[in-house]
């Protein structure tokens, strides 16, 4: 993850709050304290007998090292995984298909959406795409440009944007900073927006995140998947 010096954090904070948005309210999420993204992935691998796993954005292998599966590829331009490339270059050359994809790369709407679209092209039938960091609890944690070390970015906008498509069924599970779940199925609850997703503000998200993201609890996830 990008390292921010103190000066850059201050500049980005003032820029964001003056020119983009200044909103102080925060959300209190009920993330389980004993169930994390690697637990969810392990559950899906075992339940569906998945064999092929792709991870975009590996950092220090906090997740990649824990994934137990026959074939796994981890893509990161800086550290972790086993492929040293950015995601755009990887997808340009990739010929493999995957049962499960976990996206945790650059936490910026445009790139996350691109990573999801590219992942859909190499997803096996009945495969699942998971997207990390979909549920920021404050404006500072979703601000782009970034000025906080604990940062989700505006990943949530990619989920909101794609929930308007008829050919994708999407939920967001309330665990581990919010995990988006994307399947290539008919959309059972198409989201209607009155403005482009890229133009949404944190204030919009604050008041509408349950509808925007189609939030489900872990117990509901296990009933559906």
What's the helix and strand layout?
Layout lengths: L5 H14 L17 H12 L3 E5 L14 E5 L11 H7 L4 E6 L5 H13 L1 E9 L7 H4 L12 H8 L6 E5 L5 E5 L18 H12 L1 E2 L1 H7 L1
Description of the structure:
- With 225 residues, the chain is of the alpha/beta class.
- It has a single domain (6-18, 31-185, 192-224), classed as Vaccinia Virus protein VP39 (Rossmann fold, 3-Layer(aba) Sandwich).
- It contains 8 helices and 7 strands, in the order ααββαβαβααββαβα.
- It has a 7-stranded mixed sheet with strand order 2-1-3-4-6-5-7, with helices on both faces.
- Strand 3 (98-103), helix 4 and strand 4 (123-131) form a beta-alpha-beta unit.
- The longest helix has 14 residues, at 6-19.
- The two termini are 31 Å apart.
- The mean pLDDT is 96.
Broad CATH class: Alpha Beta
- In spatial order, strands of the major sheet run 2-1-3-4-6-5-7
Helix content: 25-40%
CATH superfamily: Vaccinia Virus protein VP39
According to CATH, the fold-level topology is Rossmann fold
Low-confidence stretches: none
CATH architecture: 3-Layer(aba) Sandwich
Please give the radius of gyration in angstroms.
Answer: 17 Å
Q: Overall pLDDT, averaged?
A: 96
Question: Strand percentage, roughly?
Answer: 15-25%
Q: How many domains make up the coordinates?
A: 1
Give, in order, the helices and strands. Answer: HHEEHEHEHHEEHEH
* Main sheet overview: 7 strands, mixed
Q: Indicate the overall shape.
A: globular
Got a strand count?
7
Q: What separation lies between the terminal Cα atoms?
A: 31 Å
Count, helices? 8
Structural class: alpha/beta
């Amino acid at each position: 993850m990008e390292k921010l010096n103190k000066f850059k954090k201050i500049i980005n904070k003032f820029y964001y709050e003056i020119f983009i948005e200044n909103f102080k309210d925060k959300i209190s999420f009920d993330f389980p304290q004993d169930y994390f993204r690697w637990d969810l992935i392990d559950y899906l691998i075992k339940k569906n007998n998945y064999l092929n796993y792709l991870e975009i954005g590996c950092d220090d292998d906090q997740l990649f090292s824990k994934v137990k599966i026959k074939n796994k590829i981890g893509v990161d331009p800086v550290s972790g995984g086993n492929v040293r490339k950015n995601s755009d270059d990887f997808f340009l050359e990739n010929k493999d298909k995957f049962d499960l994809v976990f996206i945790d790369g650059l936490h910026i709407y445009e790139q996350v959406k691109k990573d999801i679209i590219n992942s859909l092209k190499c997803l096996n039938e009945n495969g699942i795409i998971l997207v990390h960091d979909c549920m920021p609890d404050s404006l500072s944690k979703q601000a782009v440009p970034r000025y906080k070390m604990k940062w989700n970015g505006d990943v949530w906008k990619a989920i909101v944007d794609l929930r308007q498509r008829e050919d994708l069924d999407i939920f967001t599970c309330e665990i581990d900073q919010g995990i988006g779940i994307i399947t290539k199925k008919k959309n059972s609850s198409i989201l209607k927006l009155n403005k482009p997703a890229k133009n949404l503000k944190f204030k919009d998200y604050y008041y509408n995140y349950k509808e925007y993201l189609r939030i489900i609890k872990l117990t509901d996830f296990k009933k559906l998947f």
